[in-house]
Amino acid sequence: MASLTQDRLSSPAAAADPHFAVRVWLWCVAALVFAMIVVGGATRLTDSGLSITEWKPILGAIPPLSDADWHEVFAKYREIPEYHLVNKGMSLEDFKSIFWWEWSHRFLGRFIGVAFAVPFLFFWATGRLREGFAKKLGVVLALGAVQGAIGWYMVSSGLVDRVDVSQYRLALHLSVAFLIFAALIWLILSLSPAPPPAATKGQRVLAGHLAGFVFLQVVLGAFVAGLKAGLAYNTWPDMNGALIPPGLFALKPWHKNFFEDITTVQFNHRLMAYFVLAFAVLNLALLAKAKADGRIVSSAAIVLGAMVLQAAIGVWTLLYAVPLGLGLAHQGGAAIVFALAIRHWWLTSNVQRA
Predict the structure, then answer these.
(1) Vertex 44: Cα angle to 315 and 104 (nearest 5)
(2) Least buried of 56, 168, 230, 354, by fewest C-beta within 10 Å?
(3) Domain range for residue 89?
């Protein structure tokens, strides 16, 4: 058995892919981050985010273990405005249902930290990381630690003067999660045994813009979520009978409408969806016309197809006023579209000089 294992490790296939184990580890971490994004959406959609009113990075991993523990955490929840103004009279059993969502979200964050840090140290100590790769992974690890602090920064905004978290802080929290996810995808691809195909500078610029526009749409979606704007204007393609709804840019100064006005926020999210779809069509058409490498053209087609499906899920979610299942599908779909856009961008990274 030992001889067989040694033969496999020394086989031509293993030698051709010396970073296989590192890539598998990073794929597992990326899958956990994807799960974290979805669970975070569930925490928001079930209004569970304020159920734990303290931040204990280590001891917080231990849930209530006795009836006395449950009454203690429930008493702390009954001190915040959300309980008095939204959930007055909530039973302990009802509180447990929202507590477990938030606890699971935080526990998953801790688990991801361990699942990243321990193998990272192992691969680094045993010299299995490509030169310069440890620094990049260190940045991702540091960003993950900062993300934990941002999560508490977000939660703390809803514990004193509000019954929900700040949409600004929610957008920051979700944006950093997507950036970590994108960084992992890029690093995984950079370890691929097959190099990206030849591309032109113009193709790389288009792909980079496409990924950037998808990320911007994610940020706009975070403001829709933070303001619960998906619960208004539940018609499509019009907004309660109007293609351009009355009340746009009603707030003063004007720039606050992009972040604080429900009508404007939802309208902008819709418009950006149309724009991103149109840009993805243009990207595919230009690649096909230029007879770009088949892998790049196929990637562009996959991104466009995923965007069409994501848009359909978005419309469906809106029409049914954001039920939990559809809301999670839409948030998870956004992460998948972004990952595909990042992959498409990476495929154009091998720019050939004319």
Answers:
(1) 125
(2) 354
(3) 18-193
